[in-house]
Amino acid sequence: MSEVYAVRRGLLRDRFAAAGSAAALVSRPANVRYLAGGAPPGAVLLLGPGEDVLLCPRAPAGDPPHGRPDEQLRLTVLPDDDGDPVVAAAGLAGGLHAGSLAVEEHDLTVARHRAMAAAAPRLRLCDLGSTVEQLRLVKDEEEIACLRIAAEITDQALGELLESILVGRTERHLALELERRLVDHGADGPAFATSVGTGPHSGQGRHRPTDRRVEEGDFLSVGLGANYRGYRCEIGRTFVIGTSPADWQIELYDLVFAAQKAGREALVPGAAYRDVDRAARHLLDSAGHSDGLPPSTGHGVGLEIDEDPQLAPTAMGKLDACVPVTVEPGVHLPGRGGVRIDDTLVVRPEADGGPELLTITTKELLAL
Amino acid sequence: MSEVYAVRRGLLRDRFAAAGSAAALVSRPANVRYLAGGAPPGAVLLLGPGEDVLLCPRAPAGDPPHGRPDEQLRLTVLPDDDGDPVVAAAGLAGGLHAGSLAVEEHDLTVARHRAMAAAAPRLRLCDLGSTVEQLRLVKDEEEIACLRIAAEITDQALGELLESILVGRTERHLALELERRLVDHGADGPAFATSVGTGPHSGQGRHRPTDRRVEEGDFLSVGLGANYRGYRCEIGRTFVIGTSPADWQIELYDLVFAAQKAGREALVPGAAYRDVDRAARHLLDSAGHSDGLPPSTGHGVGLEIDEDPQLAPTAMGKLDACVPVTVEPGVHLPGRGGVRIDDTLVVRPEADGGPELLTITTKELLAL
């Protein structure tokens, strides 16, 4: 596995060297983990001009939830109170006469950037931009295997919840129980804060659970995902509580289902991000639900739960094979609730069977 | 309650006006919440030169875990995809010919700062520094009341756990159960990731729970806290599992207990931060445990779990009355485990009875 990280670092090195930098400093935690195998809290990765170094503010723990750093990589633990690792890295690069150092300006604060400049006045700091994020877009099969396991865990946790009594329980309790089940089934933790919304709260993507209790006749929306070895997936489902759904519930469900299906079917290599979004969105728009639609109907997942690409009306770019994304349209009617259906899929060529659905929990409208 | 926020904003305005700025932009979420009463995700607060405005990337939710913004404050919700609220704020301040705008350079990324400068080229961006953090140091009685409730919830959750069977359960499960109990008792959530460490993992401050199970003869360390209306407290306790502790366990416990007591007793208005640290630390040092001591033996708490002051050997400054801090020395012996004892207290003058202990769970060595 170690070679994988060395290869990734090599690719990054090619990019920043081509842009004229002798060295780069990676500080965004997901980027550090991608390149170093593990990102102990606060660790930053200095690539070149000398040996690659992972600078950590303290020694990594024995059983780390943030991954285990590649053993091929030099690991420097800074003494207590020895300040910020990015400043130490600037000092190191300055001492080696790197000339210029590419940094992640979208991650570093102005204050840290200034402290680096002060520590190495001869070093020219330039912007690495989102180079590492771009490398992270297309996943290798090892990464997809982690996402697949994360999705299996997620499906199991959700499946068990559906077998239990729901009426009378609060959104908070259901969310906590889902998170416990994720961990029971082997997740390192939830991929993001689990969302449970009942009745008027249903149908919203990131609703924070409240003390509202599930009632007969409610829509119940859940959004959850497992984090497995750093890789995060996402599922969203909406159910009805009680014997039989009302007509407006069936109608709204069928509409969102159709929109989500259209989005999933648009996931082919070469499809423009905005066209995937439009496929899902236009059905909701035509049905008069353009108000209150979320700004995107899907996004990439990986070491972060919300990473590139964005499937949104103004997004630029086209899907590649082996890019995992969510497709998650939803409609929320203020005061009444709504429906959201969300899957994690991997873009695959048609010759390989088309998009690979990772989250396989049924999307039939279940009455629980 | 609304006046409180207006008064705080007035104090901040005095500070930045004295430093020569016509306007300030607060972006750090805890600072926004302190001044605005609520900090919807991504919201930033622009003070002056015109009316104060809370700029939000989307409409605040109905039942917000991040507080409810002061109704006296103008609230501007940016249209979808209308970019970064800090850029919108720079445009607003530039349009009002503010001249200069003080920003939180320790919070803003270089990329966001650059986008602000581009949006308002005539605006001079200067540094607000940690002015708001300084205002937050001394708490008013309303804030302390929130911390007191947070501590009560925390004590309840911990007390219930102690009544249950512990042997055979994993660190992860115990941590999840503690977090569920915090929420059951009215917390908005855990104040930080609950830490449970058994056997060789015990005695570490921020140990991340693993699948190790509690065994007879183990030390068991827990660290948890409730978040109540944004205010976060912290408790840490260490127990022994089984009938009777070993001699080394009693000895180590007594030592850490004495160190923690010394730290607590040093909490008087006017005491230097470093002297409080030294009071707790020197007992551990003299017993030969200087290796592996944490860099600080306590810190402030409030809207963030780890805020100023730092009780550390090189910290500068003196305690004021009404500053809540933790006192949390610990010793961890690699391979064997250790002891950590952590309380949240409020500094009070001796005339008022001395430090107010918020976390009242017993510190006797309990054999469970």
From TrEMBL, chains A, B:
Residues 192-211, 286-305 are annotated as: Disordered. It comes from the Bacteria. Pfam families: Creatinase_N, Peptidase_M24. InterPro entries: Creatin/AminoP/Spt16_N, Creatinase/aminopeptidase-like, Creatinase_N, Pept_M24, Peptidase_M24B. Residues 146-348 form the Peptidase M24 domain. Residues 8-138 form the Creatinase N-terminal domain. PANTHER family: AMINOPEPTIDASE, CYTOPLASMIC PEPTIDASE PEPQ-RELATED. This is Peptidase M24.
